[in-house]
C-alpha cells in the first residue's frame, strides 16, 4: 500500500508542477517579449521539447523510487521533490506575474540545488532510470543561469 500511495503522490506532484507552470508561465505576452534576453538563450522550440521530457521523466523516476526503495528513502525523495516543485512554482509566479526577476532566480537556483539529492536517490533506485533525470538537472541549471541573466539584463 505504501508503494502505491507514494507512487500516486509522486505523479500528483508532477501534475501540480505542470498545472502550476501552465497557470503562470506566459512567454507570448508583451512584457516577456520586451525583455532583453541573454544571447545564449536556446530557441523557443527547445523549451517545447525539453519540458514534456522532463515532466515525463520526473513521473517515471518518482514511481521507480517509490517502488524500489525503502520508506525512508521514498519519504526523503518525495519531500525534497515537493519542496523543489514549490520552488519551481515560486519561480514561475515571481518571474511572470509580479516580475520579481531576482526572487525568481533565487527560487530556480534552489530547484537546481534540490535536484542533486533527487538525482542521487533516483540513481540509488536504478542507475538507468536515475540517469534519465540528468537532462532535468542540466536544464534547471541552465534555466537558473538564464533567469539570473534576465535579472541582470533587465
UniProtKB/TrEMBL annotation:
Localization: Membrane
Gene3D superfamilies the UniProt entry points to: TspO/MBR protein (1.20.1260.100)
UniProt key word Protease: no
GO CC terms, sorted: membrane
GO biological process: tetrapyrrole metabolic process
Keyword RNA-binding attached: no
Bilayer topology: Multi-pass membrane protein
A Pfam family reported for this protein in Swiss-Prot or TrEMBL: TspO_MBR
Bilayer-crossing regions: 7-25, 45-66, 73-96, 102-123, 130-151
CDD domains in the cross-refs: TSPO_MBR
Keywords, alphabetical: Membrane, Transmembrane, Transmembrane helix
Family, similarity comment: Belongs to the TspO/BZRP family.
Name of the featured protein: Unannotated protein
UniProt source species: freshwater metagenome
Amino acid at each position: 500500500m505504501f508503494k502505491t500511495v507514494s507512487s500516486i503522490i509522486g505523479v500528483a506532484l508532477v501534475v501540480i508542477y505542470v498545472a502550476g507552470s501552465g497557470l503562470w508561465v506566459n512567454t507570448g505576452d508583451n512584457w516577456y517579449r520586451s525583455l532583453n534576453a541573454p544571447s545564449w538563450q536556446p530557441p523557443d522550440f527547445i523549451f517545447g521539447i525539453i519540458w514534456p521530457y522532463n515532466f515525463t521523466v520526473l513521473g517515471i523516476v518518482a514511481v521507480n523510487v517509490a517502488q524500489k526503495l525503502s520508506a525512508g528513502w521514498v519519504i526523503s525523495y518525495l519531500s525534497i521533490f515537493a519542496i523543489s516543485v514549490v520552488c519551481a512554482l515560486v519561480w514561475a509566479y515571481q518571474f511572470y506575474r509580479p516580475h520579481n526577476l531576482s526572487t525568481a532566480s533565487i527560487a530556480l537556483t534552489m530547484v537546481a540545488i534540490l535536484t542533486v539529492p533527487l538525482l542521487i536517490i533516483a540513481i540509488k533506485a536504478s542507475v538507468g532510470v536515475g540517469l534519465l533525470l540528468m537532462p532535468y538537472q542540466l536544464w534547471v541549471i541552465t534555466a537558473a543561469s538564464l533567469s539570473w541573466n534576465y535579472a541582470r539584463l533587465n
